[in-house]
Fold this sequence. Notes:
- The complex is a heterodimer.
- By secondary structure, chain A is mainly alpha-helical.
- Chain A has 14 helices and four strands.
- In chain A, β1 and β2 form a beta hairpin.
- The model of chain A is unreliable at 1-12 (pLDDT under 50).
- The longest helix of chain B has 39 residues, at 103-141.
- The interface between A and B is large, with 95 and 97 residues.
Amino acid sequence: MSPSKSNPTAAANGGTIIDATGTRTEVIQSPVTTITDKPRRLVSASDGPDIAFRWIARGSGTIVVTVMLLVGLFLAYQGFQALHVAGPSFITEQSWDPNSGKFGIAAVLAGTAFIALTAISFALPLSLGTALYISEYAPAKIKNALVTIVDLMAAVPSVVYGLWGLFFLSPNVLPVSQWISTYLGWIPIFAVDGFDQNDPLSSPTAFAASTFIAGIVVALMVAPITSSIMREVFTQAPLGEREGALALGATKWGMISSVVLPFGRGGIIGGTMLGLGRALGETIAVFLIISPVFVIQPHILEKGANSISALIALRYNEASKFEISALMAAGLSLFVITLIVNFIASTIIGRSRSGNETT
Amino acid sequence: MTTVLDKRSTPPASAVTRGTQETPRTWIPPETMPPASEPRRSTATIRTVDVIRLLGSAFAAIGFTAWLFFYALPLQGVIGFVVVAYVIFLLLFGILTAFDENGQTVRDRIVAVFVNSLAFLMLLALFSVVVYTVGRGVGPLGNLNFFTQDMSNAGPLDPLTRGGVIHAVLGTLIMITIALAISIPLGLLTAVFLSEFPGRYARFVRTVVEAMTALPSIVAGLFIYATIIVFLGFNRSGFAASLAITVMMLPIIIRSADVVLRLVPGNLKEAARALGASTWRTVWTVTLPTARSGLTTAIILGTARGIGETSPVLLTAGATTFLNVNPLSGPMTSLPLTTFTFVKSPENNMIARGFGTAAVLMVLVLVLFALARAIGGRGPGQLSTRQQRARARQSRDDGYRYRARALGVPTSAVRRANPRSLPAAAATRSGAGVADSAAVGLTVATIAPPAVAEATAQQTRAARTLRRRLSEWRLLPKPSAAINRFRRSSKAPQGSPEPGPNSTPPAPDTSGPTRKDPDA
């Protein structure tokens, strides 16, 4: 064993090491690094156009915010004028006669809620079924086409749905309404006052222009949105868990009910609530179908319904300045309700396990 | 017990001597034994028996319901028939399945049928909406005057051969153009602001915008009505309607554009920044082009929404029967608003006109939607074949440019010297010898950055080399031929390829790739 091999100083100072096999290894002394490398600034210098761009982008954001806040503040300002006059009776009063100072949104608010709830009770199973079909059952070939069709359905203008509801659905639904009220009339909401089953002269027009029909039409407008949110969530259900369920012998429905539906619960609830928000604000289709009444009308099959947006569309035209402000107050309350519903919806979607990636 | 053994399966002598002769421990099946014939499995998810069950219960349900309706019970109505038949069908199907399946399978089958029929119902509803509207609108749509006249000379009682909706079509187009002229720059800039300059202020803006998507469209209309028309005292006009549409459309566009921009891969932006690009150049050359299809989709879907909305226009535009192309003065109308006013009339002809207008509107929305699908539908950074080709072309041109700069000659010279079919890889292999050019088509280009400084120093020499090499490239065979020859000639690439049949004759001062380079 050569002594130089075990001599560390020789290696450190440079020199030659010869090991047992006779291989010579040149050790070169590394130069001492005295340059101290300062940490670099990780900010790129902003040149002129860059600063301008920053300010333009910021400015456009500010414009948008200003416009949006202006809408909200103006609504609130105008609305509060009317609210100040009406006081708490704004919530409880059913009639709408601002010029005599007697006005409130009790009837229209209740009507809006009835229409929206009817719509959701139709839209929920419809959209859930469609979403499940597209994500789980549909053959892969037609899946994309189905997604497109459902999205397309969401893009069809609301006035077209209104026409369809008024001229096609309404006459066809009358016998169904009549049947429901005849056999299920003992349930309060299905009762119809103006129609006597035993009187051959009573006309089924007592069932026309009802909350029920408006609800079905709004349901069709809402279902595509709800369904596409649900589908998006369902398709994100983890493949491993799906295959695990199937490998344990679950049927397809067993897999869906134990993996897909629990995973997509947030999407189902959130999507439904987003649909509800949309249903609350729907104007033209509802306005075309209903015949407005200014009493709380809990009988959904009976003629006569109302909603806040329909009220605005009905009354804005001949309105005095004060009535405009009263309509603004009604619009404000609609906006606040929609905002709350949407906020809850997005919170539910965001908090859920599936929603973390989607929004 | 006798076991027939094949010769080859007889245990080796050592095993025989150790154990008993009659029962060997290891038994290898003889090769002559036919393989166990396994029937080919069907991987179909629908079995014949399922189909038979479905059809059987469907027929039984229809028959049973017909009997109920016509003889047994005082029932009538088409919808009632369908509902009762469907319930009976589900029941029968469940019972049939329960005959030879367990409870879980029965539930699975019933749910499958139910989900299928719900989806079918949804599609049926859409189909019915579209077909009914178009079907009833065919009458006015058949007359050319429907597209060329306005309603100023046509009263409610006039036949469909008089009057049309040109005023509504033009009104819609004018309104949406103004609305888009405001909302596209504003919306896209705000979306860029939200995604590129994150911070407390951006978060605030995003919250406000998201809240505003909840604004019912009629309230947007009411806002413009109350401010522009009542408060400021302007008359109803197309411009006011455009503003109302803008207020309604802006949050939708911002929100979907924001989502698309956030999907742009971070490494692309980081690469741009690492190359020294400023924020502005990163956004302009990387972020926006990458998200282009998604942004276009966002805008087009917002447009479809804006075109179809009635209520903001109802409050602000003021319905008219005259053609008015000046958005700043006089009332204007739009397609949905005209539809709405038409169908409120009790006259059949007016209602037919309403359906015709609705059909025109729907076609417009369908076209926009199809456009959005054709453009969008791909995530950021996913390119169509055409875009990929364009990118390859661009990359090749970049290669020419680099080379031209390195060699101090104009780019056009390099481009002219390269046949179109030559892959970009060949152009970028500046350092590699051309001797193994047959393999060039297969080589993944490892681009050695051209040493610009060195090239300027040795410009003359490099120019000479370039001239020689350019002529060599002309001699190259087509890449496909080169690849084929490469495949044929085993693993080792051919040293010097023969000139391809299409190659132009070499320049007089060169003699082909095999010639030794005195400069090298």
